[in-house]
RNA sequence: GGGUGGUUAGCUCAGCGGUAGAGCGCUGUCCUCACACGACAGAUGUCACAGGUUCAAAUCCUGUACCACCCACCA
């Protein structure tokens, strides 16, 4: 790779480095930007001048991967553009260290478990090492939180270093951690406000329940997975004689059967409506009812309703006010029940209890097999179970199917507010626009309120206590809500107003709410967390709503939706004006990179192999919303572009160091027609870039800026370099003025994408001209900077074409580019000829043409390419 | 079953009514005051398929197939 040193000529202006070494240049610039406080937000400037980013707080669970690099760089590109428009940019970073991933990580690293009832031990240090699975040390919630902070601090340092190294223009003073005291306070304050406004309620209700983690989960956290199962055809009796067969994949729920339904128009079962069916094994008498939900085409057309097989069961159970026969416990096992009393019914309680005794204590899956056996033995199983594939709901982080379990949970009422939430979502501008459809579809399809309580230990506790009645029962109807001033509180260790700690858990005393909030309950507040809604109203007013929410598409239904809901409920506002949805990085076989292969390619390694600018180039090439295949060859292209920029900038500086060196050049100096045409061409480009960036289409800008830049190097720079360096004074000044502006324009246009090389080159030259010590604070280029320079594009076009023809001829003759041209004849239209005559000197120099052998003839047509005849000279 | 996006050169993608484009890769040539991590030139395509609208369709409309994702289905 290393080129032959003997071929390398010493070149360039003295003082400028000979070759570009991003590995040393980039980190040095990171340090300088920090020292210069380049990305600091200025709270004294008005909201109108401010651009506020609601940065996604990455989950702190170990490693950032290439997918993170991709999307965060895209946000940074947008942000850097806004800064160059003169905006006071508010670009914070948060750490999402409040979730299950952190909890598990800390448990394993320190060998501890959180046990909220334990008292806090100041200065606690874990016994150390990784404990065996069974002997975790129990620690208080506060101690657990401290350990989390300890660990996440390490991770966060690593994350921050990577973000800085990538050139993210974050103001690192605006930093938050979702597990930190301030975020806990904000989350609890949000609870108080929503409770007061009536959006927050608690109720005992069937809820999606994960039996592995033993917690409720929200609809948004559930996902479908295809699993194999078996249809069991089970014969049911009818109370006054007769029988029918239902087909089910969940025979273990037979004991939880509360009704049987068939379609109202199904003639096979119409006569049965109003009668009672008798379940096999348990002899429970359940009503046979008509329901639209039953599909006559499916199975046998008649189905059992259990508490609870799925959401349809829940709905029917509610509508018909059926009894609750909960047999699946919170641990996923069948709980003991008694058919002789309570909600359970049986015509033969002794037999029912005997049958059930063989199932109690088994996990649902075991019970399924066992029930099949029992049914078979009882002779009520019609035929062998038939295999089938079915979609079953799982918690996205879990491995066992979700169950519906009735339990007391806190909910936020979203179902009653769908129209308003749809309207709010529509007020934000979505980029790309079609992503709004996903939001719309999700909101329309919601069928459960947002369950925000989790039966976990690690997380933000509810600032709530309950009185304990004299009989020892908890009185959930009279929650004691904390005062706002006390937040954050932990009801497991803090005491409610009017009570003393001694009364905890006693009749006539109180208990703390044992649950913690879903992490989304906190992260849905990110724009209000960074604006300091909870403790600084003036600052909040200056930063809320934000301008931009960048995020990925798979969390539209969670993060975007919840944030929109909370902003509306709290502030009657949208949370942000724009949503930019980034795509995914996919591996060449189209799998999701961030979940598989991507983790093996660490961003740090790639930075070492290529450069930050190279990685950023790759991210900048991808449009918002569009998945991108991981392709290292694009890094190489980015690398090459940065090197080319380095060399072109250096070379341009060399031209400027000729006779016109030091002169203050401006639009008035641009007198040559070719220069005017070039500048005009750039002016159009610059204006288009504003429009595209305004539409968040940065990828389009990079595409044509890159193209224009290579064209500049290959054509315009080649044409004018001789004149600039050694031409007649006025002509040289014209070229230099144009080159100086051109360089400053390209450095600025590339700055959001390639912040390092552009800053480096900017430092060589452009400081004085634009009075901006950093390209990243320089104004985005505008046509107005060169308003007086306007020229005929034809000059540039016809000159380019003739030069191309000369080069093609030399290539065909296997001659070098500088080989002399003895005779050059150009036939073209008279407008083209007139234009060409204005740039002949440049053409002669660039093509090494003998002036005496040059002739331009007006014999062609202006709408056709000129006909060029080349005769080479001898060396 | 509903929705969204995609299908263009070997690969990765741009173009989204007016003669098919770029980069990578490939072939050949060339060291020009920067850059060989360069320059110049060249080969490479029924723009998924079928209909329709239009003077004109890769581009607009309808349908089909395939890929990806989101949602629903869960007896």
Structure in a nutshell:
This protein has 875 residues and is an alpha/beta fold.
Characterize the structure shown:
The chain has 25 helices and 30 strands. The chain is α/β, with parallel strands linked by helices and 875 residues long. A hairpin with a 4-residue loop joins β9 and β10. The protein is elongated, with a radius of gyration of 36 Å. The protein binds one RNA strand of 75 nucleotides through β9, β10, β14, α6 and β15.
Features:
single chain, RNA-binding, alpha/beta, 4-stranded antiparallel beta sheet, 25 helices, 875 residues, disordered N terminus, 7-stranded mixed beta sheet, elongated
Approximately how much helix is present in the residues? 25-40%
Structural class: alpha/beta
- The average pLDDT value, as a whole number, equals 90
Strand content: 15-25%
Number of strands: 30
Specify the number of helices.
Answer: 25
Sum up the overall morphology in one term.
elongated
In angstroms, what is the radius of gyration? 36 Å
